[in-house]
Amino acid sequence: MENKQKTIAVLTSGGDAPGMNAAIRAVVRTALHRGMRVLGVRRGYNGLINGDMVELNYLSVSDIMHRGGTILYTARCAEFREDAGVEKAKETCIKMGIDGVVVIGGDGSYRGARDLSLKGIPCVGLPGTIDNDISSTEYTIGYDTAMNTVCDMVDRLRDTSQSHDRCSVVEVMGRKAGYIALNTGIACGASVILMPEVPYDLEKDVLDKIRNAHKTGKQHFIVMVAEGVGGVEELAKKIEAATGIETRACVLGHVQRGGAPSLTDRVAATKMGYHAVELLEQGIGNRVVGLQCNEVVDYDILEGLEMVKTIDTNLVRIAEEVSL
Ligand SMILES: Nc1ncnc2c1ncn2[C@@H]1O[C@H](COP(=O)(O)OP(=O)(O)OP(=O)(O)O)[C@@H](O)[C@H]1O
Ligand SMILES: O=P(O)(O)OC[C@H]1O[C@](O)(CO)[C@@H](O)[C@@H]1O
Ligand SMILES: [Mg+2]
Predict the structure, then answer these.
(1) 121 CA distance to ligand 1 centroid (A)?
(2) Tens digit of pLDDT for each residue in 289-322?
(3) What b/e readout covers 156-177, taking b as 16+ CB neighbours within 10 angstroms?
(4) Are 207 and 239 in contact (CB under 8 A)?
(5) 1-23 residue pLDDT tens
């Protein structure tokens, strides 16, 4: 008897990230190349629960590689956090003949993928988040683009800070992680970088540093603050009061999630998307795909979620020594 044609589904979930489209394209093209059908699920797990999906062909994913956002839309789906929601999604998968699902998203989306895998629908997670806060991979899709966007924005802030002899306190995204803040802080020449992983003393690590640099003739400052530290408005007031330097706070916000993906994001998304399909082709689910030393790897979802990722303490030290 002839083998039944495999059908896989692909969805994006959680916050969007530049490069998600490149990942969708890689999944679709790889699967079609191997003779599978592909369904694109709209708005994350919502689409899986409600059966909101469309068949994708080679042309459906043309001209999307260079676009930010996700053509499949994304969402945070409260219903999927409950067993009843996962059960409904499973029923939809069975009804639509879905043999496996590629879930592109963050750690929350991975938990959902695990729940559905445990119900017998093989799921493979791809790391799609600007935060780079997924332990099982050194790199997440969207991280590089978001950091380049931050650099571009902060370079602009520097122009106006420099012209006014001001201090700019900038909040960047990252949820509870400081990866974006640390790397962009270095790249933008920040005088101070605050991230949740590294405790700081306001007087010693922020105010004294700015006061001392001010005495040597430095007139404008960038203070980079991770979202997980927050409080940029209050911090700006404290810096102004303690140093006499006019200070402004700026929360960069969602601009960090948009824009054309960088080359790094496009290639990473393509490599990982390809691997996800290779796994599903073999009927292997409950896995998360990642990059370690730029090589594609995969792990059991729970094992991946339980891995620990730490901030690069050497990079923190370098940032401290070179900043002024
Ligand atoms: N513990 C869980 N069990 C089942 N499903 C979950 C769980 N946590 C999250 N999900 C599902 O995954 C969706 C996305 O999760 P979340 O909002 O945490 O974003 P994420 O995937 O971590 O991405 P990001 O943090 O980059 O925005 C949730 O809306 C929900 O549908
Ligand atoms: O778009 P929302 O729901 O406001 O979520 C914002 C969060 O999503 C991210 O942009 C991506 O996880 C975080 O950096 C941020 O904390
Ligand atoms: Mg998350």
Answers:
(1) 18
(2) 999 999 999 999 999 999 999 999 999 999 999 9
(3) ebbeebeeeebbbbbbbbbbeb
(4) yes
(5) 457 899 999 999 999 999 999 99
Which residue numbers in the chain have pLDDT < 70?
1-2
pLDDT at residue 2, rounded to an integer: 52
For the CA of 174, the nearest atom of ligand 2: 14
User: What is the per-residue burial (b if ≥16 Cβ within 10 Å, else e) of 113-140?
Assistant: bbbbbebebbbbbbbbbbbbbbbbbbbb
Residues annotated within a binding site for ADP = 25-29, 158, 215, 218-220
Active site residue 131: yes
Rounded Cα distance between 17 and 19, Å, is 6
- Ranges of H-type helices in 18-67: 20-33, 45-50
Q: What pTM was computed for the model?
A: 0.97
Strands (E), the chain: 7-12, 37-41, 53-56, 100-105, 123-127, 167-172, 192-194, 221-226, 247-251, 287-292, 295-300
Residues 6 or more apart whose Cβ sits within 8 Å of residue 156: none
Residue 106 CA to ligand 3 center (angstroms) comes to 5
